[in-house]
Every structure is written in C-alpha cells, then in structure tokens.
Design brief:
five-stranded antiparallel sheet, about 15% strand, about 200 residues
Length: about 200
C-alpha cells in the first residue's frame, strides 16, 4: 500500500469517526432502553456532558445545634461557594469538598424524590440512605457550639447568581446527637454510677 493510499484510508477513518460522533449526539436518548449506540460509545465521544438537563440551582447545606437547655442556635451555612479568582483556574484545593457536598445533596434530593419523602416526616429509609448518612457524618465532624447535644441540617436551593431568586428550603433533617457525652452522663445512662456512701 502506497503512502498516498494509506493517507486516504486514514482520512476516511477519521471522517467516518467524526460523522458517527455527530450522528451519535442524540440529546434525548431514552436512558431506560439500550441500543446499538451504547456499545459504540466505547469508541465514539459523547459530548452531552450537561445536556439535556443542565444544573440551574445551587445547593446550600446549613446546620444548627440544639443546646443542653433546649435552645437552638441560628443556621450556619457549610457549603458556601468561594468567589472565583484567576488563581482558582490553576489551584483550587477546596473545590473537591464543594463538589462532594453539592453532589451528595443532589443525590439525597433525588433519593427523596423517588421515595416521596416530605420534609419534616421521619422516614427511616431516607435516614439510612448513603447520601443522608454522608452529610450527617460530614456535619457532625464539624465544630459545634460547646454546649451542643444535637444537630440538625437543612438543604436549600437558590438560583446561584440570580439574586432575585430567594433560597427555598427543600429538606429538613431530624435532630441527631453530636459528639460523645461526658463520662458522668454515659455512666448515668448505663446505670454504672458509683455512689459514695
């Protein structure tokens, strides 16, 4: 095979590959059905990263503590997105944590949507789900009020840079215990209190 023929064959392969890539970008594929395209996507790029449902909301994860006397602290946001700077295009070590909180919140909301859970109603299925436990673990390991005995988290959505859109609460968790109680409380709870005569 001459070099000229080999070049034409190579051009033909790349042209065919490009053509299949263009044809294969079906924006509204039915994800519940498999087709011949699914096997071809091992070799053909699929450029529909955000389509057909791009993200249009920001998720906000907030937390508050219940103190030993029964009072409740104000809400604190733990998923605040940093203002982007030019440096963030090269170095942004906190982006991974931001993305993890965003994805876990979105997964919890998807789980709740599938199970028809309404905020405020205790549902053990939701409380035992992986995204719920992930967020709870993340928040209980954060710094709390010194007198906190329980914590609660809230997920809200907003329009991001659309400042006229008010944030909306979409999920409110139950209260959960935080930290390890002092030794005296643990002993009293288990009945192992040593009483002095």
């Amino acid at each position: 095979m001459s070099r000229k023929t080999a070049r034409h064959v190579l051009y033909g392969v790349f042209a065919s590959w490009f053509g299949l890539t263009v044809v294969g970008q079906k924006l509204y594929r039915d994800s519940s059905k498999t087709s011949v395209w699914d096997k071809l996507y091992l070799f053909i790029p699929d450029w529909r990263f955000f389509a057909p449902n791009p993200g249009i909301h920001d998720h906000h994860l907030l937390m508050r503590d219940k103190l030993a006397d029964g009072t409740v602290t104000g809400w604190q946001e733990y998923s605040k997105v940093e203002e982007r700077t030019l440096l963030h295009s090269v170095w942004h070590p906190h982006r991974r944590a931001e993305k993890a909180v965003f994805d876990t919140s979105a997964e919890l909301l998807r789980f709740i949507g599938q199970h028809g859970h309404l905020s405020g109603n205790a549902d053990p299925t939701v409380q035992l789900s992986v995204p719920y436990l992930t967020l709870l673990s993340h928040l209980t390991s954060r710094k709390h009020h010194p007198e906190a005995v329980q914590t609660q988290f809230l997920i809200a959505v907003s329009g991001g840079y659309e400042v006229e859109d008010e944030p909306t609460m979409v999920f409110l968790s139950e209260f959960h215990s935080v930290g390890t109680p002092p030794a005296a409380q643990r002993a009293e709870a288990t009945g192992d209190v040593q009483r002095t005569p």
